[in-house]
């Protein structure tokens, strides 16, 4: 199964690619956004993905757009260094489409899906500790904290206890093994969401340090974007979107005014570096959701780098 790009029309209209400009797609995936950007304008596109399989699959697109598409294997949190190595210090636009591609979810062997059997891996980059390593090694309280913080799982303590009891009997090495342990202690929900959904999300976020990656990328974007350059982020759950929203509020100078009793005074408000292009997050149209259920939870936020840093007015 291929990956259907989510909110593609909205991404293109917010990024507004133009001829002669240079863009970054920080989440190349199946190349859906990349192809559309390159077709929309005669521009240059750098694209990053930490999954070696995504980079390998992209070779055909590189040949189709000779000299205009450049793929880099690495993490978007590291975009400053990855681009610097290529001699790129400025960009006219950046797009991030967070989370997993359909290729990753649908390939049971990658370990992201609780519906298909596979090694409990979950590493997008295929490097570093796996989800099985975390499940085998984390102390019970840390396991519970991970499920709570990154999965918003209310039954985190109960699940962590069940995992620790199960791993004392035999190592937990597969997705279905873990899903069955969780199903044993989490009652089925009325909305039909699989009991392992939140725990799998939590482990995946921790294995790939997904929230740290987003924070690092947003900071780097402020450095890389030319005045007028646009940053477009599509997120898929509230933890991701919260980081983006906080960044937008801070970077557009909309942080709440400091109290007049604050000894640092009104000057404590940070300078605005971005103009907000989407006062509220954009959501996919109903017709898109009907055609691609994975779009259901998407939220798009876009902002534009200001010509200069403006001190926010009190
Ligand atoms: C939702 S898919 C992107 C799909 C793409 N927009 C398309 O239209 O085909 C997300 C991709 O981002 C990659 N990814 C996620 N986090 C990353 C990170 N921190 N650094 C680099 N790539 C990352 C994943 O490996 C995956 O291939």
Structure in words:
The chain is an alpha/beta fold. Helices cover about 40% and strands about 15% of the residues. It contains 14 helices and seven strands. The protein has a seven-stranded mixed sheet, with helices on both faces. Helix 8 crosses helix 9. The chain is globular and about 60 Å long. The N and C termini lie far apart (about 55 Å). Bound molecules: S-adenosylmethionine. S-adenosylmethionine binds near residues 50, 77 and 99. S-adenosylmethionine (SAM) binds near residues 5, 33, 97, 124 and 213.
Question: What is the strand and helix layout of this fold?
Answer:
Blueprint: H1 8-15, E1 22-25, H2 32-40, E2 44-49, H3 52-57, H4 59-64, E3 69-73, H5 79-85, E4 91-97, H6 102-106, H7 131-137, H8 140-151, H9 156-169, H10 175-183, H11 197-207, H12 210-224, E5 225-235, H13 238-251, E6 272-276, H14 286-291, E7 299-310
Parallel strand pairs: 1-2, 1-4, 2-3, 4-5
Antiparallel strand pairs: 5-7, 6-7
Helix pairs in contact: 8-9, 8-11, 12-13
The structure holds S-adenosylmethionine.
Please sum up the structure shown:
With 314 residues, the chain is an alpha/beta fold.
Structural features:
globular, 314 residues
